[in-house]
Amino acid sequence: MICLDTSLTNASTPAPKEGDMVKFVELNPPLPIPEASFSTTDGKKINLNMFKGAWVLVNFWATWCAPCISELPSLYNLKQNKSSSKFKILLISIDRAGPKIYNPFLEKLGLGHLNSASDPKAKLMRALKISGIPTTLLIHPRGYIVGMYTGDAKWDSPSAEALLMHYIDTLKE
To answer: Which of 12-16, 119-123, 129-133, 155-159 has the lowest mean pLDDT?
Structure first.
């Protein structure tokens, strides 16, 4: 049995949910991340446990998904403005052809610095019981999913920043 620390979600004030962020669903209790692996652009197998120690915003996407494409610029802006050792953004493409399709696609959009990992058989998505894209997860530094957002969002908006900073600043690591 997994015993979860209630401090992972029980902040003294509720998360601010305005604008797009009204669709953010806090998971209470938070869910442990699965062991399922996915690949880096160069084919190295990794898993979400490798990101413990930092808050991670994980976004599942594909080049053929119009809502995914519409939110990519805001994820790029968020990465440029907020990414640090304490907060990381991880894109995971489910394109079956992997990096040979999504890397040129990101370059064409002018988002070449927005690196993506690859889950071409959607093993990680299935392990997480995610049924559609785009889906974005917020993962606590201890390796628990504290919330999720299904659909496209403006991740560089003031409402998204307020929501993310609420978790980063108020929940103990």
So the answer is: 12-16
The tokens 């209470």 sit on which residue? Answer: 28
Q: What is the pTM of this model?
A: 0.90
Give me the percent of the chain exceeding a pLDDT of 70: 91
Residue entry with tokens 């996915």: 38
Instruction: Show the domain range for 22.
Output: 18-170
What are the φ/ψ torsions at residue 90 (nearest 5 degrees)? -125, 115
Residue 145: strand pairing partners: 31, 139
Do 138 and 167 touch, CB atoms closer than 8 A?
yes
Q: Is residue 125 part of a domain?
A: yes
Strand 87-93 to 55-61 pairing: parallel
Q: Is residue 7 part of a domain?
A: no
What is the pLDDT confidence band of residue 8, given thresholds at 50, 70 and 90?
low
pLDDT above 60 for 55:
yes
* Domain count across the chain: 1
| 1 is a domain residue | no
DSSP state of 35: -
